[in-house]
Amino acid sequence: MDAGALTVTVAETVACALSMERSAADFLPPKRTLKSLREAAARCRGCDLYKHATQTVFGEGKARASVLLVGEQPGDREDVEGHPFVGPAGKLLHRAMDEAGLDPKDAYVTNAVKHFKYVERGKRRIHATPKVTEIRACAPWLTEEIRVVRPSVVVALGAIAAKRLLGAGFKLTQHRGEVQESAGERVLATVHPAAILRARDDETRHTEYARFVDDLRIAAALVAK
What's the pTM value of the predicted model, to 2 decimals? Predict the structure, then answer.
């Protein structure tokens, strides 16, 4: 290995170590309320995603909601508007919640990662999957949201959210719709509504939407107990 290659390798190692040390924990406010957490998250520099995102997109909803729904990260519309689940996937989610008997007024919606990660293709910004280090760095915000809201059930929307809540070894394909216990919380994992929108044809989309509503009905039954 030549000296130049060694220098790059060392630099990358140091950068990786520094990124691992950074975390949203450094930006948590002394008093933990949804208001104070939201204000603090707006200034979060726990990872580098803030550099390219328009703004932090924190969770929203009832302060003592019965159900807390967690997605992966904000999308393009969420990044622009500053609110979670306001794009096409959000509209589908709210329709499914209504059909499943989950009251949106008794819900809190948020994401595992609070900044939009994307790649540019022409004038479009295309979703990019957050790295494990980025998800880990953002984890304290979600932990505090769950602690403050104290929901009856947490619904993980998609594999990223499910692994964040239930561990890296959790397999959504094997345990979708099952109620799990994690850190004293009841967690139910299902697909992200965006996955339904990406279905290859109308028939598949209709089938997957029906399964999604059925999963949310399980959450609704837990809330009703």
Answer: 0.89
